[in-house]
Every structure is written in structure tokens, then in C-alpha cells.
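Box 3.1 A note on notation
Throughout this textbook, protein chains are presented in two layers. The first layer is the amino acid sequence; the second is a C-alpha cell string describing backbone geometry. Keep the layers aligned when reading.
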Amino acid sequence: MIRRVLTGLLMLGSPVLAAEWTILPEQSTLRFETAITYPIGDPPRPVTGGLPIRDGRVLYDPSLLDKAELDITLDVAAISVGDLGLDRELRGGTWLGVRRFAVARLQAKGFEQIGAGQYQTQATLILRGTPQVLPVVFGVTFENGQAIATGTAKVDRYAFRVGASVPETVTPRFVPIWFTVVADEVSP
């Protein structure tokens, strides 16, 4: 009886931790889609590209969603849309300013379940040194011992001063992104 009481008291004082996962950058992607109307008057041209995920970690346990955390580093300097001229332009000071801001971070604390295996969180994206809250919706599945999160968000480029002098008639203000993050559980 005393042993049970002591064990219970010890458990109450112990922090409850979610499982830690390490992101596998080579299997993870962040993609975006926009359009460019240039020269003015031409029809919009769709542009799809991506940012490599450099590294990151996740604390996640479906029974401890309030303890969940996400921290991903994006390699902004390696942005690519498959067009060398546009890639150079996007890396420049008007757009992403990669000489000063070579990386971006996506961070979140606490996930809310919105369906079976479906979640949402209010993440903070730090891009060009500017933090902004970004609603993110994602799903999580498990396969071959790995967690796979796929999701979407919408970025307001003006909030980060990305192409702030470029009007919406040239390229849209809001840029949809989608991602796949693959992670291995860290051994205890």
C-alpha cells in the first residue's frame, strides 16, 4: 500500500513528455505555388518551387497533444523554382534576401486534433527575421517505424516583406505551401 502511494506521488511530480522525433531532411519537403504576370499584361505564369528542410525535431504523442512541439529549419538560400533567372531573383534583396536571411524557422507548441489523425496548430514562421503566426493543418501517419506529417498553410508574403514592393497584379500576396515531414523516433 505504501509503495503504491509513493509510486503515485512520484508519478505526479514527474513531467510527462511526448516522444521525440528527428526529422529526416532527405525525405522531407516544403513546396509552394504562385504565379507571375510579367511583363504586365501577359497571362499569369504558374510557378511551383520548394525549400529544402535542413533539420528539425518534433515532440509528438497523440495522447499528449498539449505537449507537442515542432521546430524545423528551412534552407531559404537553396530555394528553387526550376528557372535559374527566377531562382536568382527570389534569392535577392527584394524577395528573400538570402545574404542576410539564409534560413527560416517554423515552430509550434501544442497541437489540436480536428479529426482522426488530423491536427491544427498556430505555428510561428520566422522568415527574413520576421516572426508571424501561421495556421497550419496537417495529418500524421505511421509507416515502417516513421512518422509522416503532411499538411498545408498559406503565407502572406507582405507580412514578411517578401517582394513587398511587387504588387499583387504581378504575383499574388498569399502563397499556398504544402509539406511532407518524415521523422524517426529518437531512441530513449
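Residues 2-13 form the longest helix (12 residues). The two ends are 30 Å apart (CA to CA).
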